Predict the 3D structure of the following.
Amino acid sequence: PRVGVIVVAAGSGSRLGQPEPKAFVDLQGRPILEHALLPVFGLSVAAQVVVVAPVAQLGEARAMALEVAGVAAGYVTVVAGGATRQASVAAGIAVLEPGIRVVLVHDAARAFTPTHLFETVIAAVEASGSGVIPGLPVADTIKRAVDGIAVATVDRSELVAVQTPQGFPRQPLADAYATAIAEHTDDAALYAAAGHPVIVVPGDPLAFKITTPWDLRRAEALASAAPD
Ligand code: CTP
Ligand code: MG
């Protein structure tokens, strides 16, 4: 395949506060990771899907990915993650097949991300040759606060709330990861630190990240409303 999708699912989910790692928490009868993989395997383009899972859940993740993949099963790869998200992404990059030209990195915790957002990001990487991130306008007024004092109101028109999947041309991404020294907040920051351009495409509210128990309640409402 020409496209690789790395789904990082190796985090513990400390803010969610459930006993199992976040991607394996049940959401209306199926784990969060399974919800997240459904739209990925809905892609019309052939893709290698790399699931990065905790060591203790490798078998569970493999079974889940193969079940969701169906006939596309040959393109599923499952690897163990690392101590940080960045280390988990690096583990995913390490197992990409040789022919892959475009790499998407996606949080399993964004379980309702629609297939069209993956397609938009792939198309934008191919058209631009740049890194591509989905972003949404920020709804709240944002202020800079120092020691409890509001010192400035940030110009909201310049801000975007960034989501995944984030897409990149394969070789510059692999090189940026191979030479990264610092820990970066997202893949695009690591990519930009290596000197590469990153463009923003419209995100989707459904690509929100399940982070807190409140997010899980919203996700439960969405999962119970889903027609599948
Ligand atoms: N992730 C990962 N490996 C890590 C840390 C995070 O693969 N060492 C993944 C998570 O599984 C998640 C995504 O990165 O799908 C986004 O991270 P986040 O929402 O922060 O998940 P956790 O790190 O698991 O949650 P928390 O920060 O609350 O512990
Ligand atoms: Mg985290």
Remarks:
- The pocket of cytidine-5'-triphosphate (ligand 1) is lined by residues 8-15, 22-23, 52, 81-85, 88, 107-109, 209, 211 (CB under 6 Å).
- The longest helix spans residues 115-128.
